[in-house]
Amino acid sequence: MKRAMLALCAMCLFLTGCGTKLITLTEEEEDQIVSYASLALLKYNYHAAKGITNAKPEVPEEPEDDEEEEEEQDLEESGDASAAAVTEEDTAIPTVAFDEALDLSGCALTYDKGEFATEYSEGNYFTMSPTGAGNIYLVLNFVLSNDTKKDAEVDVLSQMPSFSVDMGETNADSVSTVLSADLSNIKETIKAGESKNVVVLFEVPDGTGDVPKSMTVTVDGRQGTMEL
After folding, report:
1. HSE-CB of 6 using CA atoms within 13 angstroms
2. Contact, 206 vs 172, CB < 8 A?
3. What Rg, from alpha-carbon coordinates, does the chain have?
4. Contact, 164 vs 216, CB < 8 A?
C-alpha cells in the first residue's frame, strides 16, 4: 500500500511540478493514467475482494402452470365428492318392513282412523294440550291384536321408537306422552285372541286438512313404513 501511495504522489508531482508548465494530456492518456492508478491501488489492497459483490443476473420466476393447478383442484373436488358419497352411504338408514322395524312379538298393528283434536284426554283423569302455539293434535288410532293361540309379551317401550307421519305437504314427528294407550309406552301381555286400542299423537298446524298417507317408525337404526 505504501508503494502505491508513493507512485501516486510521484505522478502528482510529475503533473503539477513547481515552476513547470502544466502538461496537457489527451483524453486517451488520462484514461491510461487513471487505469494504472486504479490497478496500483487494488494491487496492494488485500481486502479489495471483500468489497466486491458478484452481481448475479436476476432469474425471473416462472409462472405456475395453470393446468397443474386445475388438475390439483379437480382431484381435490373429486376426492371431496367421493368422501361425501361414502358418508351418505354410511349414514343411510336401512329400510325394512314395518313389523320388522318394530317388534310386536307376533301381534298385528292395524290402522283404524285419524282425527284432529285441540286436546286429548285419557279417561276422565288426564288431559293434554299441544305445546306449540297455533297447533292441534293429529291422533292416529290403531288396533294391536294377537291373532295367535299364545299370549304375547309385547314390549315397545324398551325399543324407544320414534314415529313420523307423511301427509303430503305436511310432515310431523310423534309427541312423547305418558298415556297408557300410547303405542310407544306399551309393555304388557296381549292374551291370545285379544286386542288393544292404541294411539300415536302428532302436533300439526291448525287448519291442516291433509289426509295422513303413511307413518314411519325408526328403531335402532332401521326404518319401516306403514301405508295408512
Report:
1. 4
2. no
3. 49
4. yes
Nearest to 191 by CA among 163, 152, 164: 152
pTM for this structure?
A: 0.61
Cβ neighbours of residue 183 closer than 8 Å, sequence gap 6 or more: 109, 142, 144, 156, 161, 163, 198, 199, 200
pLDDT digits (tens, 9 = 90+) for 173-189: 999 999 999 999 999 99
Whether residue 6 is predicted with pLDDT greater than 50 in this model: the reply is no
Nine cell digits for residue 95: 329400510
- C-alpha cell of 116? 284432529
Which of 7-16, 69-78, 203-212 has maximum average pLDDT?
A: 203-212
Q: Are 106 and 163 in contact (CB under 8 A)?
A: no
Reply yes or no on whether the pLDDT at 56 is more than 50.
yes
Residue 90 has pLDDT above 80, yes or no: no
How far, in Å, CA of 48 to CA of 67, rounded?
50
In the chain, where the domains are located: 2-50, 95-227
Is the CB of residue 99 less than 8 Å from the CB of residue 109?
yes
**Over 70: is that where the pLDDT of 15 sits?**
no
pLDDT for 26 equals 75
Long-range contacts of 70-73 (CB under 8 A, 24+ apart): none
Contact 118, 137 (CB under 8 A): yes
The topology under which CATH files domain 95-227 is: Immunoglobulin-like (2.60.40)
